[in-house]
Structure formats: structure tokens, C-alpha cells
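Exercise 7. Given the encoded structure of a 291-residue chain, write a plausible sequence.
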């Protein structure tokens, strides 16, 4: 299996397939590269080179004790990109992985990056602050975190329905697939389960989003419980200059699975638009104003 070694000697697993312009996938908290099983084959079949990696503490990567802050994780991503010498790439993220790619741009610049996609992202700022009054209260989150830590398997099972949007129109998720996703979450170390969650919850990425100067696609469900649309998707779109926001009706957090066909088409169109922009050199990218 292919691994790349981070600066602190942590081994990071990655997988890749296809040829053409590269797309790198950053997974959600607790999930790993396997979460992209609906996106990677589709985009490879449409002419792209797709790379996905397991964040430290997740999946097949080493379970380091530390390093779950966005600075370290962005540097891990940088190590992978440098190792594979990727250029003109599209970065695709889900949930708390969105902070990873935003921090990557802030720390390492956009020299190798042509565009990014934020899917069900937790950006810009989840935690309630004086200048973020509609954020989530830290005391309530800590109480939920205590329940999660006491019995991780039960917590993931209890919250699976909200993650997928079970009961929403058109949403059908088998018990077997639910179990598959829960097993992925349990393949994340107990330490990473807590620490990376806290990173995603406490980080304020508003200034970094304002500074992004590459094309950005934002995809969000209107029934997302884990990253509410009004707090995350819409605010992110308003902060990123010239971004494009697609809101999926009756979609929860796991739209990468429940709305895979639509997401695949949107990612393909976005990547192809970027590909045309790369070939032509100027002016072929167009975006929509966020609401």
C-alpha cells in the first residue's frame, strides 16, 4: 500500500487512480478515503487523476497522538502534494476537511492549486463567539462530546439517521451501508475522534476564506444537521470572493452518498470548467453570486 511520511514521521496512506488533471480528496472527520467510493470511479472514468488520503489517526494512516490541529494537517496535505508533484489540481473536501484545504491555501499558497470544492463544509466558524452570535454553544458541544467519548459505537449508531437524512424525501440508506460508515468512523482513533472534532469546531477561518483567490465551488444540503446551511454553506459563500454555491434540497450531511449522482455531475462540470480555464489561460471561469 502507498504511504507518504509526514514531517514527524507519521505515515499517511493514500490511494490514486486515473490520469489527467489531478483531484485530491480530503475526507470528513472520522471517515477516510473510502468515503469517496462514489466520486473517484466516476471522475476517473471522465479523465481525471484522483488521489484520496487517510488523515492521520484515520483509516490506514498511523495513529499519532498529536497533530490534529489544522496547521499540522495542512502540512500533511502539503507533503502529499509535494511527494506526488501535483500541479493545477482541484482540492475537494467534506465537512471538517474543508478547514484542512482552506488552511493549506493560507500556509502554502495556491501555486499548485487551480480550484477547490467545499462539500457540506463546517467553515467558516461553528463556535459561538462575540462576533459570531449564531454559532453553537461550547457547553452544549462539550456535553455531547462526553456522551460520544463514553460510548463511541452507540453515539455513531444513534446519529447515523441524522447524518444521512433518513426519512427525508427520496433518501434510502441500507442498514448494511450504515454499518459500513460506522465501521469507518470506528477505524478513527479515539484520540483523533476528539481532537480533530475540536479543531473543526473551534477554528475561525473567516479571514482565510476572504483571502482565497482561486475558483471555489460550495455544495451544501438544506437539511444538514451537522453543518447547518445558514451557519456554514451560506456564510462561506458570502466570504469567498466569486464563489459558486449549490444548495441541494432535502439533503443532509452525507450528500456524497445520498446525492452522489448530482454531486458527481457538479464536481465534473466544475473540474472541466477549470480544465478549460487552464488550457485557455484566461477568463473562462464564471461564478454565481452567493445569496
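Solution.
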Amino acid at each position: 500500500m502507498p504511504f507518504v511520511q509526514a514531517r514527524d514521521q507519521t505515515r499517511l496512506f493514500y490511494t490514486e487512480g486515473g490520469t489527467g488533471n489531478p483531484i485530491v480528496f480530503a475526507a470528513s472527520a472520522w471517515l477516510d478515503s473510502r468515503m469517496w467510493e462514489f466520486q473517484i470511479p466516476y471522475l476517473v472514468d471522465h479523465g481525471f487523476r484522483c488521489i484520496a488520503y487517510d488523515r492521520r489517526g484515520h483509516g490506514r494512516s498511523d495513529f499519532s497522538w498529536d497533530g490534529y490541529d489544522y496547521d499540522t494537517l495542512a502540512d500533511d496535505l502539503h507533503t502529499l502534494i509535494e511527494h506526488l508533484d501535483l500541479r493545477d489540481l482541484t482540492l475537494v473536501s467534506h465537512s471538517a476537511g474543508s478547514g484542512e484545504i482552506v488552511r493549506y491555501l493560507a500556509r502554502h499558497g495556491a501555486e499548485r492549486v487551480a480550484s477547490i470544492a467545499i462539500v457540506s463544509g463546517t467553515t467558516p466558524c461553528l463556535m459561538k463567539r462575540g462576533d459570531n452570535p449564531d454559532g453553537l454553544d461550547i457547553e452544549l458541544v462539550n456535553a455531547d462530546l462526553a456522551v460520544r467519548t463514553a460510548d463511541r459505537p452507540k453515539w455513531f449508531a444513534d446519529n447515523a439517521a441524522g447524518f444521512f437524512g433518513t426519512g427525508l424525501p427520496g433518501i434510502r440508506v441500507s442498514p448494511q451501508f450504515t454499518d459500513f460508515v460506522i465501521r469507518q468512523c470506528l477505524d478513527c482513533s479515539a484520540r483523533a475522534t476528539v481532537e480533530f472534532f475540536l479543531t473543526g469546531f473551534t477554528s475561525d477561518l473567516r479571514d482565510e476564506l476572504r483571502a482565497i483567490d482561486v475558483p471555489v465551488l460550495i455544495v451544501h444540503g438544506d437539511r444538514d444537521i451537522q453543518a447547518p446551511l445558514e451557519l456554514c454553506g451560506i456564510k462561506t459563500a458570502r466570504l469567498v470572493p466569486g464563489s459558486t454555491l449549490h444548495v441541494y434540497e432535502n439533503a443532509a450531511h452525507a450528500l456524497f452518498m445520498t446525492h452522489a449522482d448530482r454531486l458527481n455531475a457538479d464536481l465534473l462540470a466544475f473540474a472541466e470548467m477549470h480544465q478549460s480555464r487552464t488550457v485557455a489561460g484566461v477568463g473562462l471561469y464564471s461564478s454565481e453570486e452567493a445569496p
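Remark. Residues 260-280 form the longest helix (21 residues). Students should compare their own answers with the one above.
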